[in-house]
Amino acid sequence: MTSPTTKNILVLGGGISGLQTAVSLLDFSCNNEAPEYKINLTLLAKYLPGDKSETYCSPWAGADWRSHASKPGASIGCTEGQDGKEKGDEGKEKEKEKEKEKEKDERLRKWEERTYRKWKSMIVENGDVKAAIGKEMGVAITPSIYYLGSTYHGAEIDENGVWFEDVVGGYRELDVGLQENKLKGSLGKGVRKGVQFETVCVDVDIYLGYLVHRIEQLGGKIIRGEIETKEGLEGVVRGCRDMLAGEKIDILINCTGLSAAHFVGKEEAEKMFPVRGQVLLVKGETRANTWNAKPDHELSARIIQRLKDIGWAEDLQNEKGEIEVQDTYVGFRPGRKGGARVEIEGNGEGDGGRDGKGDGRAKKIEGVYVIHNYGHGSGGYQSSIGCAEEVVELVQGLE
């Protein structure tokens, strides 16, 4: 029997977002003695670590930390020679979209920085890597090189570098033609900038298992089950309550990824799209709006050829100079127009709260507060802790 002040929380979804959200909530509760911070947490999911399905994308991730956010002040969405200013209603609409993009990237930078710093603090102490803990978690620090192509006009990296140079360790700019970069000579006109830094790489199978262990260790419960989605968000809440045999739910955390499109409102569902990812042993490629789950062998060959052309992964080549592929993974990342949705139902952009079309106040669905945490695309791991900690803050703000 829980006390009157204990919050009964159900996390829906067993991918990286759901598992990390559960761990962060339980961690916060265990580290605070005040009764208002105590929770009773259950995680409910159709798929759990160990399962293999193209729609359960967390086991297929490459999972290294490399920011997807633009630098503050970057000209988002502008080609060279444009300042992005246009007159009339069309210009106002574009300016509005740019402001939304800036807000999205500001949140993304916060989430990614929080995640990087937390991971590093868990496996590095006083400058020394705690290898045993990193091995248990499936997390390691490793050098990463980030190149800016001569035809690329994105906002994550430019001639001045990247936004996260003061966040990561070992940051330095590179001469892209030097052998020190593990290149066979210069990349020539293809690259105009290169930076190196210490990234965090994750063995996803080990890490997902570690999170499951932490949930159980901290007193959370994990239940396998599938919820009917035909009756919208209200039906999902009722289904979750039935799955728990009528147990009280105060807060439901929606971490269902692409599955959210089956029960959120029509306008919100239209923002969701699959991002097909194909991963070999060392690298992957993403394609938006593609549901083909079969490995593309031509794509695999191109990935391997790119590695060989620039001299990477030489230690993985056999006597004939070939790379032996042990497996090929394909999964669908949960893309969302406008970036990830991390907000309380009724109090955010996903339901009209930020653009003036809604009242902007948290509302209960079937007597339950709903917090959303989905739509992270291919950046689910590298923003996982930051997003989960924001969910913790949202939970604290509810009555």
TrEMBL record:
Q: Name one GO biological process term.
A: D-amino acid catabolic process
Query: Which PROSITE patterns would you find in this protein's record?
Result: DAO
Cofactor names from the entry are: FAD
- A single Pfam family, by name? DAO
What does the similarity note say? Answer: Belongs to the DAMOX/DASOX family.
Per its UniProt record, what InterPro entries does this chain match?
A: D-amino_acid_oxidase_CS, DAO, FAD-dep_OxRdtase
Spell out the protein name for this chain: FAD dependent oxidoreductase domain-containing protein
Alphabetized PANTHER family for the sequence: D-AMINO ACID OXIDASE, D-AMINO ACID OXIDASE (AFU_ORTHOLOGUE AFUA_5G11290)
TM region positions: none
- Map out region (Disordered) in residue numbers: 71-107
Q: For bias kind Basic and acidic residues, which ranges apply?
A: 82-107
Q: Cellular component GO terms, alphabetically? A: cytoplasm
Q: Domain FAD dependent oxidoreductase spans what residues?
A: 9-394
Gene Ontology MF, one: D-amino-acid oxidase activity
Q: Which UniProt keywords apply?
A: FAD, Flavoprotein, Oxidoreductase
Can you name the source organism?
Botrytis byssoidea
Which superkingdom heads the taxonomic lineage of this protein's source? Eukaryota
